[in-house]
Design brief:
Mean pLDDT: 79
Distance between the termini: 46 Å
Structural class: alpha+beta
Strand order of the largest sheet: 3-7-8-9
Strand content: 15-25%
Number of helices: 16
Helix content: 40-55%
Shape: elongated
């Protein structure tokens, strides 16, 4: 039986072999006998920690796939960066190793890279800005010290959220994230306590005097939904997707084409639908059906043009709904429900 790197990592991190039980981030002494010595355990953990902080690949690869090497699926299989090209556009994904090798047998998953990267950034920034979580992480109870810790967490959270574009990919996935596991209904982050402490103290020196179990990873588990949208599988975490997503250029182009072609006919710039199709090298049926988007409900149009549309409103769904009914309430039912 062969083991993936992810499964091996889980075995080497399992405290059961040390005679302990870990539950909800807390470690308890078990009633069973340890089968490895403390010296061997500490040596292995030190080696894992050392490897987790090594640079992963070249600079260009790190920029294009910042989660490479630390992202795993629920079966412990590493999720590797992959891509597909459609209509000249390059789409990035993270794909389970069995799917990459073609040995999945129905297991594994492929998720859009921008979705999971933005999701991780949001989870980290939200937790750093949460006073209750920060107090629990630090173990501090004195108000003056807590005030410093909260301030440091807020500044680090704002710094992470401020990153955009390529900076987001390279800088905003903090180095204190050791491992990420994507399941069907949750995502779990393993945070290096020592590395996080050092990051916090860079913004507020000596804000955290002492953290117990610095070598013990801190786990953050957040509920998510894997939702199929058209041919894609998207990651959904609360309202994150609708608040922070970039514009969907394909959706925007469909709406713009509908308005542009309707104006061409209304003003006489084009005599017929066939003339528009010939000029823009499109199918006549596509132009004809797309004209109805000129009468898309104003609030839905605004959602699309500002990137605040539901994640379930994809170009495929909009195309399938054409020609749209003129009644805006019917449009809402077709596109938003």
């Amino acid at each position: 039986m062969s083991l993936s790197r992810g499964a091996l990592y889980q075995i080497l991190r399992n405290r059961v072999y040390r005679g302990q039980i870990q539950h909800r981030g807390e470690v308890h002494q078990g009633e069973h006998t340890a089968i490895i010595s403390d010296d061997l355990w500490n040596a292995v953990q030190a080696r894992l920690a050392e490897q987790s902080h090594r640079p992963r690949g070249s600079g260009s690869r790190r920029a294009s796939a910042p989660l490479a090497g630390i992202l795993f699926d629920s079966d412990g299989c590493r999720m590797s960066p992959t891509y597909a090209i459609k209509s000249g556009r390059r789409y990035r994904y993270y794909t389970s190793a069995p799917l990459v090798r073609g040995t999945a047998c129905g297991k594994g998953c492929r998720v859009p890279a921008p979705d999971v990267e933005q999701l991780i950034v949001t989870i980290i920034a939200d937790h750093l800005a949460d006073p209750i979580w920060m107090a629990d992480f630090s173990g501090v109870s004195e108000l003056p010290q807590l005030t410093k810790i909260f301030g440091s967490g807020q500044r680090l959270s704002q710094s992470i959220r401020a990153q955009t574009g390529q900076d987001l990919l390279v800088e905003a996935i903090p180095q204190f994230v050791e491992r990420i596991e994507v399941g069907q209904d949750s995502v779990t982050l393993a945070i290096n306590r020592g590395a996080l402490t050092r990051e916090l103290e860079m913004t507020e020196p000596d804000c955290i005097a002492n953290i117990a179990d610095l070598d013990e990873p801190l786990e953050i588990t957040t509920p998510i939904r894997l939702q199929r949208c058209g041919k894609q599988v998207r990651l959904i975490l609360g309202e994150v997707s609708s608040r922070t997503r970039a514009l969907d250029r394909d959706l925007v182009q469909l709406v713009l084409d509908g308005h542009r072609w309707f104006e061409d006919l209304r003003t006489g710039r084009a005599a017929t639908i066939a003339a528009i199709a010939k000029r823009d090298r499109r199918q006549v049926s596509h132009v004809s059906r797309n004209l109805s988007l000129a009468f898309l409900a104003p609030d839905i149009t605004e959602m699309i043009l500002t990137g605040r549309h539901p994640i379930t409103l994809t170009p495929e769904r909009l195309k399938a709904a054409r020609p749209l009914p003129l009644d805006w309430s019917q449009q809402h039912t077709l596109l938003l429900d």
